[in-house]
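DM between two lab members

TW: hey, do you still have the Family 14 glycosylhydrolase entry open?
JB: yeah, one sec
JB: this one, 481 aa:
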Amino acid sequence: MKKSLLVLALLFSLATFSQSPVDKSFPPEELFALGSYYYPEQWDSSQWERDLKKMSEMGIKFTHFAEFAWAMMEPEEGKYDFEWLDRAVSLAEKYGLKVIMCTPTPTPPAWLSKKYPDILIQRDNGVSIQHGRRQHASWSSDRYRRYVENIVSRLAMRYGNHPAVIGWQIDNEPGHYGVVDYSENAQLKFRIWLQKKYGTIDKLNDTWGTSFWSETYQDFDQVRLPSQQEVPDKPNPHAMLDLNRFMADELAGFVNMQADILRQHINKDQWITTNLIPVFNPVDPVRIDHTDFLTYTRYLVTGHNQGIGSQGFRMGIPEDLGFSNDQFRNRVGKTFGVMELQPGQVNWGVYNPQPLPGAVRMWVYHVFAGGGKFVCNYRFRQPLKGSEQYHYGMIMTDGVTLSPGGEEYVCIAQEMKKLRAVYDKKNRMPKELASRRIGLLFDMNNYWEMEFQRQTDQWWTMPHIHKYYNLLKSFAAPVDV
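TW: and the structure you got?
JB:
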């Protein structure tokens, strides 16, 4: 009898040991979790408890802190203040909310940009992108990376064992808004990247076809990042392809570096992710491989006159969610969530309609049906000032009234309770459906090449790929991208 008990105990401990941090945070029997962005730095501290309590009462399971708060954490070089964040995390814990903690690297503080202008991105016209928005620091700057290492380490040491913190998001939508960095840091790193890739300048010349138009290089030091500003026509297409690959590697290296720093300090129950904009230069998800899984950002209603039917522009394009689900589910970790999903109108679209009633709920269930672990909506409260002032939240400008999207999230939370009550872990996808599973190959290298060398101005790569994707889905075929 004692031996049997010991065997059972061992099996239980092995099962517990083998459970991933992601499964601990989002256990299968919970089915799906709802989260929301909250910015304590934007609100009077007297309102934090009311807000986080309200969030919990709405059925939200986790909140999301600090991705834009470097200036609050380090208001002066070497002087740190985490007490405000300690209080916010404690209040979240008090009301049963788990926390996704973020590294604040998309928003370096003003003192850093002022003291060290060499960390800034430079456009191809020679103008440096200055402090005043976000994502203006260069991934290629070794100096910037040292400051990143410092703030990420301090954050990880402080919250790496906090019971309320379930995981970490690195940066926020890393991508520099698609802007290519032409700083001297980037120029140097590009030449090093080329030398590593090709070995000899002759190999580069042969691959790029530089014998035409006398483009031939005699030395890697002669090569510059290709720029439309510096040539009278389109740059060499092979140079442009390598430019995109280089930027994607710099981005991935920046994210992977932060993941490695976090691992040195956080406990094994906390996971690491980042949130990416799907099919967006210079993002290539397959290059980011030091995280536990990847998440993505999606804004479906941004004023583009697309979608199904006369009200499609208020619902979005279905394949934008479906394709992203099937793409991110098959990346590192074999799981995913949607880290940003709008709960209402945005402020930055072509024009900014309200989503059709029921659209927000539809999007969330679309992610759930696609195998996602969670949706985190952006954002809990609509800001009263500053950037994104007119971006809706789940709570309106008075700080207490639910927005239409907020009401839909409450509805979803209640429905999830009912679904959990009938969950059966033995259930599997019907064999007839599973037998139709098919893979769709998609590669960012091909995407970059087709976009740069379009044979007609009427060609757009993703709508073409979506035609194949939609055809497969019309057969009720599960798709892996």
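TW: got it. The two ends are 50 Å apart (CA to CA). Residues 146 and 282 are 22 Å apart (CA to CA).
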